[in-house]
Records
---
Amino acid sequence: MKLTGGCYCGAVRYEANGEPLMQAQCHCRECQYITGGSPNMFVAVAPDAFKYTRGAPKKFARKDLEKPVTREFCAECGTHVVTRPNAPLVVIKVGTLDEPAQIMPKVAIYTIDKQPFHHVPEGIPSFERLPQR
């Protein structure tokens, strides 16, 4: 599968090639902050399957956490493009894809933080935290 996308203003562009490692919606509080209150829809790929093709993102990691994730976003328009967790993954935000309909969440995670107005599609597995490997 080939995925392409970028930020709202077009200053940052990327592509990812290969099979997704995970397609999910995350309900954790951190994602709610980033999205403005909604679950975060994402597709995870291997780091070697992802590359920026235009521009370079600004990076942010909280200094007060022991193992913070790194969030990468456009310094021009502020679009959150990817997250790099403490695992060999690049977590691409579905809203930044050129064709978001290519991705369908197959699992809901961190539902322990789910808000009453969040929707988990019927039939997809949901987990209070991360599913066991």
---
Amino acid sequence: MTPRLARYLGLSLGGFHRLAYWEWGPPEAERTLVCVHGLTRQARDFDVLARAFARHGWRVICPDLVGRGQSGWLAQPGAYTLLQYGADMNALLARLDVESVDWIGNSLGGLIGMMLAAQPASPIRRLVLNDIGPFIPGTALRRLGVYLNAPPPRFADLAAAEHYIRTTLAPFGALTDDHWRHLAEHSVRPDG
């Protein structure tokens, strides 16, 4: 079972931008699950989970937030805000043309889900949050700051990228070698 890549347009103050999402399972499924990644990640992190839900008849949508994965970039660096992500996800929900969705949000994806679920008449039926809450420890913020402020790493090959991913994402837990390789393959660009 492989996902289908689809694209749509989002709108910011700087103009239109391309957004991508990966769709699993039957488009006509009774239930739709939206899985949204964290600040520094991308949609393919959810492949294992998406495949499992799709096998049970769900339609699963895994978007790449703007500036990540297969999505485009915003014209203005300061435009990467919760409001922009919320607007982009609202456009995605409209494109899906469903009455309601269940939402799994990891970190930033959880914040976006909370923001959308809190709105009157929200289409979010159930919300599952991972790695986000009302308090973010200072150590976690410092670790993220170091990671985000470092120059983008370059790798000699995929093995070096996988080693970096294993080290940087060690808090993800005990993953199989195949899963680490999968994360590495979808987290780096072949142009270095």
---
Amino acid sequence: MRWLVDGYNVIRRDPELQSREAESLEAGRRALLHVIARARRASQDEFTVVFDGSRLTGGTPTPGRIRVVFSRPPLTADDEIMRLARQLRSGAVVVSSDRKIQDAARRAGSAVLTAEQFLEALDVPERSPAADSKDDSDAGPAREKRGNPRRLSKKERRAQRALGRLRQP
């Protein structure tokens, strides 16, 4: 499975990564790659981290199956992630809290995780996917659902499977 990670979107959702980015963009990128490399040890999945702009310094070599992609103007990292999601279809898990990217990835058939879900899964490996409970008290009026009312929707099951891949020891 290929993970497509919106680099700066994930960095800006975590206080520790944000503080590293405040030092320099390169420090923030290195910190994110280090976090992913730790998770990567437990998984045979490939990670592609996409950033806006171009690399200013030589940068850090990425270990194993972590690929770093920088968008080239006039394209943005968002455009690159959406293009890759369309290419990989259901073989990809897109990590971004950007609604535009999420919608495009779902249309392409990819699983989608928010940056927060991704970071939480990396920080808490002992938590099982079955322990996730959903609080629907503020969800508003629900659409009438066909089939088993206790079964998660297809997109939620796909996201749970992806989280399970990150959490496995």
